Amino acid sequence: MKLASFNLENLFLRVRAMNGASWEDGKDALEAHAELDAILAKETYSSADKKKIVKLLKELKLDKSDDGGPFAILRQNRGDLVKRPRSGGIEIVADGRSDWIGWVELKREEVDEVATRNTARVIKDVDADILGVVEAESRPALVRFSDNVLATVGGAPYAHAMLIDGNDERGIDVGLYAREGYDISSIHSHVDDEDQTGRVFSRDCAHYEIRTPKGNLLHILVNHFKSKGFGSQETSNARRERQAARVRKIYEDIRKTSEFVAVLGDLNDTPDSAPLAPLLRQIDLKDISEHTDFDDGGRPGTFGNGTASNKIDYVLLSPALFAAARRGGIFRKGVWGGKNGDLFEHYAQIAKPSEAASDHAALWAEIDV
User: Model confidence over 318-330: pLDDT tens digits?
Assistant: First the structure.
């Protein structure tokens, strides 16, 4: 079995009106949506407003159906904005914002850009049976990426894709892909975990229980700790230490009944840092990079140029999992290294930094379990 962790740094869904070959393809739809939003937010709709709403709905091709247009959907969750008589046409029946609950939503679809396809290449080439993903937008985004974008680079879609919304409002959550035969038997979220200071996790510590083809129950804790940016170093360090301490407790509770546990993801700090001590120096978890058959390509770091100070991604294994590990490594071909991208080999399809799959390399371990 191959277990891997990858910070995608890539949101896969984009508004369809912005996803055309040129800006002009969706310009009219975006302008109609913006104008319609402004009118629908009014406390009272005048006769002129209602005429304008009809005109804009027609422009968005929503006059015959709530989901009739290529770029937008009309959500009428409670009450009605419109009626569509059988005789034809469209009538605005709401007199103001308080008469109905809903909105006009722009449709989204997967982004087919060079960087996204390079992300797919990394996932295809790492070929993990279980892949912890960091900075993913949503489960639908993961599913669409697996089903549609992976195929463009010759990859096979994953049987299972799972993601639970976390605490970060930007939609950079942690999730998981799993191959056929690696069934997700249980999911636990820790978004609401609190300590004496307050809510612990910036995103989540997503806990997946997976049954392997050999019948073993594998526990995976996928994490994305607080970054060093956005706030003082002291505050950020304290938040990561709280997160490490909480993951340690979750790990120890699982270990009371199970021997196969992995903690993986972007922990946003180095192995010698004080914030990560609860995970790396106070319990029995072992980093796959400590394995005698681990290939880091001469660079121990997982972010950017791969220096030791940039080792921030981890696959940490319980003693039984580490004993079953056969080898591991860092996969960097999706990363642009150095000013000119020549510090290490990258895909030929990456011609500039913006086309890199991510600033993070993927980290993997082969385990006989």
Answer: 999 999 999 999 9
